[in-house]
Amino acid sequence: MQPQVYILPGTFCTGLMFEQQISVLERANYQVTVVPFNAEESIASLVNLTVKTMANQPGVVIGFSMGGIVALELANHCPELITKLCLLSTNYHADTEEKRLARQAHIAQAEQNSLLSVIEHSYLPNYFYCHQQAYADIVVKMANELGLTVFKAQLSALATRKHNLSALENIAKPVLILAGQQDKLCIAEYQHAMHEACHHSDLILLDRCGHFPTLERGQLVSQLLLAWLEES
Q1: Does domain 4-95+158-229 fall into CATH 3.40.50.720?
Q2: DSSP the chain
Q3: Looking at the predicted structure, is the pLDDT value of residue 232 above 70?
Q4: N or C end of the chain: smaller count of CB under 10 Å?
Q5: Ranges of each domain in the chain
């Protein structure tokens, strides 16, 4: 029996952005659960939700962006729940005042105008190596499904993150660090730093790829994940 796989999504994200990967993993008999990040307003509460969802069933944890931040904190507090860890387009940095102020401005804009306008003007330009409307439509669809209340909760949660490179220094499980070479948000420098800190890690940077590898390089990401999962 294949191990359980838990996917921890990023801001504005649902299982839709992992649709191709989930299909591939389920065909290989992996059980895949996407942990729903909705109303939680801190990284600690997101970790608690993840632990509750896992229900004492250890498994592979795949954390994308904000989900990777949650996964690192999970590794700090409940390493026994993680059999393997994939950090996908994420980073280990604490929040900054500059980013906090920017998020507050985004919330105000979403309340005054619309969530869609904030996504289109402040987020989508930083998400992809090469704009394709189909990918943008997926992001917009996920954001609209989650809505303004979830948007505000997730941005509040990000404000509680802390510097967490030590989680990678201490983890004893296999780690895959996977990101886009041209990611504007979680840049390649961050990925190299995480790889150097973790003695049990593999690093893969995908060329011609931004912050959403599961969309821009979806087939390759599925192949890489499956190969990594099946390594002894």
Answers
A1: no
A2: -PPEEEEE--TT--GGGGHHHHHHHHHTT-EEEE----S--SHHHHHHHHHHHHTT--EEEEEETHHHHHHHHHHHH-GGGEEEEEEES---PPP-HHHHHHHHHHHHHHHHT-HHHHIIIIIGGGT-SS--HHHHHHHHHHHHHHHHHHHHHHHHHHTT----HHHHHH--S-EEEEEETT-SSS-HHHHHHHHHH-TTEEEEEESS--S-HHHHTHHHHHHHHHHHHT--
A3: no
A4: C
A5: 4-95+158-229
